[in-house]
Design a protein that fits this description.
This protein is α/β, with parallel strands linked by helices. It is built from twelve helices and 15 strands. The longest helix is centred in the last third of the chain and has 20 residues. It binds nicotinamide-adenine-dinucleotide (NAD).
Length: 367
């Protein structure tokens, strides 16, 4: 390859474009710029998939261009709502063919938890990037398989941790990292809501992988890690069940858990399907505290410290998340708090340890 061609490729300009008249050259460059939009297919057109699709209408760097669904009527509905061409529509039998579709960059899985791993492996094998909803998988072993498969295929694996881009959250994290709260030695995370319909997949162990911990407790697990900026070295946990009919064997209703960190910091958290409006983070340091309530809901998030309220404009979490994920995948941007498969895996390792601690009553050492 000639030096000139290498230079032009690096500059993002094709030799063909250079040989075209000026206007065509411009439009070729424009096309290349337009290509810097992340083209997304959503898999699983349920409640959260719909929320993401609506939020993406306001994205600058990400665009909904395709769907994967087992329900033909939903596909036609989404086609007309979001202008999705038939060639970008798949079902669960056909979506491996996405490998031959140059117009889709990434598949965003908003399906029940147990489907994340098998579908991730198929998406990666098709050479497309993957975004998985939380929890990334049912356990750490599955998570490791996903990370390895995406690495092997050379595709990104990101997890839909929308709070990692939320402005008030990021301000508390900045303060903590800057030492403005002093040495942060205690974190409390409370995550819960009263779950309705007993027949839903969230209460089915095969599909959910557990109960409240997999669904909502993960926010406290993940929040502990980004608020303290450390990885836990031990876990203890206790379970309570008031309704064994609704919460069957292997489906946790309420779990309290504690974590210890290398600095000596400790966290005390609650995950429950039995209490409403439970969504609070509290971080205390030697110089002061930061508190957030609600801390992980769709917002507006409320946060305050010893200095008073933290004021930031409310943003639709999923809009910012998808624009930022586009920058990560297309420009190699490094987020303040990671959202990659390794990050998803770290939470799964802790959740495995929490379940083990519940079962054995023992303190579980990590790492
Ligand atoms: P949902 O039940 O509303 O939607 C799930 C979709 O998957 C449905 O369209 C359903 O038809 C489809 N599906 C495909 N195969 C299925 C099967 N075998 N069984 C059942 N459904 C099947 O659920 P949801 O609330 O949209 O949750 C989907 C995922 O998104 C979960 O992993 C959940 O944890 C996650 N989620 C994340 C957030 C967040 O804030 N990040 C919020 C809600 C849900």
């Amino acid at each position: 390859m000639t030096t000139r061609r290498i230079f032009l490729q690096k500059a993002g300009i094709s030799t063909l474009a250079l040989s075209l008249p000026y206007t065509n050259t411009l439009s070729a460059m424009q096309t290349e710029k337009e290509d810097k939009i992340l083209r997304v297919a959503i898999m699983g057109l349920g409640s959260y998939g719909t929320r993401v699709a609506e939020a993406m209408k306001d994205c600058k760097r990400a665009k909904l261009v395709g769907v994967v669904s087992g329900t033909p009527s939903k596909i036609t509905d989404w086609q007309s709502k979001y202008g999705i061409p038939a060639k970008n529509c798949y079902n669960y039998e056909t979506f491996d063919q996405i490998k031959d579709n140059p117009d889709i960059d990434v598949v965003y899985m908003t399906t029940p938890n147990s489907l994340h791993k098998p579908h991730c492996l198929r998406i990666a094998a098709a050479g497309k990037h993957v975004i998985s909803e939380k929890p990334m998988a049912l356990n750490a072993a599955e998570g490791r398989e996903m990370v390895a498969a995406c690495k092997k295929a050379g595709v990104h694996l990101l997890v839909g941790y929308r709070m990692h881009f939320e402005p008030k959250t990021l301000e508390v994290v900045r303060m903590q990292r800057a030492g403005e709260l002093g040495e942060t030695l205690f974190f409390q995370g409370l995550s819960g809501f009263i779950i309705g319909d007993p027949t839903q997949w969230r209460l089915n162990r095969e599909l959910a992988g557990g109960g409240s911990m997999m669904d909502i407790g993960i926010y406290s697990v993940n929040g502990t890690r980004y608020m303290l900026g450390e990885e836990p070295i031990w876990v203890t946990a206790q379970e309570s069940k008031t309704d064994p009919v609704k919460f069957k064997e292997g489906v946790d209703e309420t779990i309290t858990f504690q974590m210890g960190f290398p600095s000596g910091a400790m966290a005390s958290c609650l995950s429950t399907y039995a209490l409403n409006n439970l969504d609070k983070f509290f971080l205390n340091g030697t110089k002061g505290f930061a508190e957030m309530q609600p801390s992980t809901g769709y917002g507006p998030i409320k946060a305050w410290t010893k200095n008073g309220p933290i004021e930031r404009e409310h943003v639709t979490h999923q809009t910012v998340q998808m624009d930022e994920m586009a920058a990560i995948m297309l420009d190699g941007k490094k987020p303040v708090i990671p959202v990659d498969g390794e990050e998803g895996l770290k939470d799964l390792v802790i959740i495995d340890a929490i379940y083990e601690a519940v079962k054995t009553g023992e303190k579980v050492m990590l790492g």
